[in-house]
Write a structure and sequence with these properties.
Order of helices and strands: HHHHHH
Number of strands: 0
Shape: globular
Number of domains: 2
Number of helices: 6
Strand content: under 5%
Distance between the termini: 33 Å
Length: 162
């Protein structure tokens, strides 16, 4: 059960990071006060989640599934999961690199690296959020299966009683 809490904590923190980062999009035209709070939250949550939750979890997750990743002959589902895991890793690495650049140097307007880093960070955050949602809800981790079984039993009991 502790693992499920760990999954949920990382998911929720990732969504908070995504939302606070989305509020930094200049096309939204939000007020400076909201922008400033969102920017501080985005920095703090990003650093905390990356250093203390996401990277340790990712390293343990890769270590746990190392045999599956390196196995040459695997089923379609395992190949798909491996591809999505590698894609999530590459996306996360791109987000960390571009976010670090934006944190220390920033997007100064005419700077090519700043503009590219800003676009990479912005668009890859959408990809990463989608991959997190897909990985956690549609690839059928154990907790979700247990929840689905529980709901099936719950609704079947209600329908039998009526």
């Amino acid at each position: 059960m502790k693992t499920m809490k760990n999954y949920k904590t990382i998911e929720i923190m990732t969504y908070i990071t995504f939302i606070t980062g989305f509020l930094l999009w200049e096309d939204l035209g939000i007020q400076w006060q909201t922008f400033k709070i969102s920017q501080i939250l985005h920095f703090l949550v990003s650093i905390v989640i990356t250093v203390f939750l996401l990277l340790p979890f990712m390293f343990s997750h890769v270590k746990k599934h190392k045999k599956t990743i390196l196995k040459s002959k695997k089923s379609y589902k395992k190949r798909r999961q491996t591809f999505l895991g590698i894609l999530m890793g590459i996306t996360l690495l791109s987000l960390i690199i571009s976010g670090t650049y934006l944190f220390f140097v920033g997007n100064r307007g005419g700077d090519t690296y700043g503009i590219v880093s800003n676009f990479v960070h912005f668009y890859f955050s959408f990809l990463f959020a989608f991959l997190i949602i897909y990985h956690s809800y549609y690839l059928g981790r154990d907790g979700v299966r247990k929840d689905k079984d529980f709901l099936k039993k719950l609704f079947n009991k209600k329908s039998e009683n009526q």
